[in-house]
């Protein structure tokens, strides 16, 4: 049996360009917090948890802060486009990097397809009669082209997408706070009338809201992948991680607090229209629905762009470390174009499955990726737990970012993830996702371990 203590893999990013500027990374970090899940998926969480959704987002936000801090520590010490996959390999051996890397690649590629479908539904609402698949194909072609070109094109797209999202949610928060304070013209202060019982559906509702909030935070990892292609990756990672706390508190927790204060949590509009539209309607903002549709469309397209980028870089890094077909490891002009094409084709294949096999294959695929983000977080925490001591002994000067109260908070984060797994086992819908994601992870781990043994025999 080969040892799992291996030499650090060579940094795989020498052939990639370094065209991302600090302003790109700053806005990617800022906009990455404002994902499509916040705008689209938070309504169901509010309907289940009521005012306690604020507590749910606070608890899950604290867990995400710990995960980002651990990832930031490792990524600042060893910047890599493989991010947590490369760190897992450094900590536990090739099988770990293989497992978490390809699981995340599948997650990102599938998410590209789902986001394309969501964006197409919005556009076909404006232009009825046009086929959804054609809009998805158009979006895919645009972002495939963007990512096939120089990395600075990706950075520019994300910069402006993020700027729009940040401006929209900042304006929403400002209007909401003014309305709650009773100083917004034409609006009466709601006081605490809409808050009522903190747990209207009991702890079961809080559990549903907590699970919904956990998965709304997906996508924060992209900045550590992108940092490897910047001119100063250590500075970029350190800045993103150090500001994660206020960004999560302001955009996620702040939004939920404003919404449940302005709108009754059990209002049908929260789910039917979306919580942000319902809140803006409550304020009498004309055209609120269409304004938010534009913002949600921007969030979905931003996520598509970021996920094509992230998937291609993860795939490139895996191949560079010997974990995939060599054809995907080429990077002419500093851009991994074969990996970009493969990621886009997989994503569009998911879209076709949603049309061809909507009742069996497509739901199975969705369940398979349902809990992958938790698998990724567990690998991040376990890798940081193992690598921190090695860094302190061998290269302490690389610890530009340090995990708080190590190792206590690392163990607290792992316990929190275990608790989420147990909560998922209690819910029928998430239980299926947990089983499917667990099966995929087990298959990938077995394949990675087999590959590691073959490499060890040489």
UniProtKB/TrEMBL annotation:
Membrane topology according to the record: Multi-pass membrane protein
Which terms are listed as keywords in the entry? Amino-acid transport, Membrane, Transmembrane, Transmembrane helix, Transport
Query: Which positions, given as ranges, span the membrane?
Result: 25-47, 53-71, 92-113, 133-151, 163-186, 206-228, 248-265, 285-304, 339-356, 362-382, 403-426, 432-451
- Compartmental location: Membrane
Annotated ranges, domain Amino acid permease/ SLC12A: 24-436
Tell me the GO BP annotations in alphabetical order. amino acid transport; transmembrane transport
Stretch forming the signal peptide: none
UniProt keyword annotation of Transmembrane present:
yes
Q: Which GO terms describe its cellular component?
A: membrane
Give the family per the record.
Belongs to the amino acid-polyamine-organocation (APC) superfamily. Amino acid transporter (AAT) (TC 2.A.3.1) family.
Q: What name is this protein filed under?
A: Amino acid transporter
Q: Which organism's genome codes for this protein?
A: Streptomyces phaeofaciens
């Amino acid at each position: 049996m080969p040892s799992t203590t291996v030499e650090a893999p060579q940094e795989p990013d020498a052939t990639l360009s370094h065209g991302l500027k600090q302003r790109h990374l700053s806005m990617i970090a800022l906009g990455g917090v404002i994902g499509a899940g916040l705008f689209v998926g938070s309504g169901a969480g509010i309907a289940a948890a009521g005012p306690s959704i604020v507590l749910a987002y606070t608890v899950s936000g604290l867990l995400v802060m710990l995960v980002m801090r651990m990832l930031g520590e490792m990524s600042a010490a060893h910047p890599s486009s493989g991010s947590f996959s490369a760190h897992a390999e450094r900590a536990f051996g090739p099988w770990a990097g293989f497992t978490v890397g390809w699981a995340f690649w599948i997650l990102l590629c599938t998410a590209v397809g789902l986001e394309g479908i969501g964006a197409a539904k919005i556009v076909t609402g404006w232009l009825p009669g046009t086929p959804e698949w054609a809009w998805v194909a158009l979006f895919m072609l645009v972002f495939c082209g963007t990512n096939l070109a120089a990395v600075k094109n990706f950075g520019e797209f994300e910069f402006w997408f993020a700027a729009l999202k940040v401006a929209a949610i900042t304006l929403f928060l400002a209007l909401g706070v003014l309305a709650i304070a009773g100083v917004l013209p034409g609006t009466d202060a709601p006081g605490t009338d809409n808050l009522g019982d903190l747990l209207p559906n009991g702890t079961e509702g809080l559990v549903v809201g907590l699970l919904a909030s956990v998965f709304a935070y997906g996508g924060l990892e992209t900045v550590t992948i992108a940092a490897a292609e910047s001119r100063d990756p250590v500075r970029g990672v350190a800045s993103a991680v150090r500001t994660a706390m206020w960004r999560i508190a302001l955009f996620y927790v702040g939004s939920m607090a404003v919404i449940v204060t302005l709108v009754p949590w059990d209002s049908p509009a929260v789910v039917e229209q979306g919580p942000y539209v319902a809140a803006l309607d409550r304020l009498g903002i004309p055209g609120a629905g269409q304004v938010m549709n534009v913002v949600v469309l921007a969030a979905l397209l931003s996520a598509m762009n970021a996920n094509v980028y992230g998937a291609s870089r993860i795939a490139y890094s895996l191949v560079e470390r010997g974990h995939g077909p060599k054809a995907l490891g080429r990077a002419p002009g500093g851009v991994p174009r074969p990996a970009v094409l493969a990621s886009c084709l997989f994503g569009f294949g998911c879209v076709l499955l949603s049309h061809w096999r909507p009742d069996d294959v497509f739901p199975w695929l969705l369940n398979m990726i349902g809990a992958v983000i938790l698998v990724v977080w567990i690998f991040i925490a376990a890798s940081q737990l193992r690598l921190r001591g090695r860094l302190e002994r061998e290269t302490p000067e690389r610890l530009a970012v340090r995990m708080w109260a190590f190792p206590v908070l690392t163990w607290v984060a792992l316990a929190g993830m275990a608790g989420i797994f147990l909560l998922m086992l209690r819910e029928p819908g998430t239980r299926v996702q947990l089983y499917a994601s667990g099966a995929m992870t087990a298959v990938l781990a077995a394949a990675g371990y087999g590959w590691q043994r073959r490499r060890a025999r040489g």
